[in-house]
Amino acid sequence: MLELLRKRRSIRKYQNKEVEKDKIEQLIKAALLSPSSRNICPWEFIVVNEKEKLIKLSQTKEHGSVFLKDASCAIVVLGDSAKSDVWIEDASIASIFTHLMAESMDLGSCWIQIRNRMHNKTKTSEQYIREILNIPQHISIESIIAIGYKNEDKKVRADDELNYNKVFFNEYNKAFAFSHSE
Questions:
Q1: Tally of structural domains, the chain
Q2: pLDDT tens digit string along 46-59?
């Protein structure tokens, strides 16, 4: 698991190659297997692989979504706040499970934050996406996970690059001693 976590990086450049249906199905299974508070499962998912919709979705935010136009597919992660007060956390966990599953299949992925983001000065990203994908008003949008075959190489993270100074032992500001062995 640690090797997978070291390798997983946000990928924003994709090959012009379609992600196979069986791999998309595995990504969805991973998302559906993600834990949720009290097993309420307030998340829902929309798989988008139509190029025209991916291009429209790449314009979701003023910054940070344009690379989606080159992805093979996207998984839009939704949540129903009426079902659970922690739908945001549950949807975030499902998003991360999707990332890890993508990496396990040598696919690239990148989280595009939607909740609390703006499409332009007058419309939220959520409103913009809701119109494109016909999402009902009672369903919220947490993120879009861009998926595709990687067209960039990123360095694997080493232990000595980790922020060990952010970990404390038994109380805040009491350093935790780590052995930095690989």
A1: 1
A2: 999 999 999 999 99
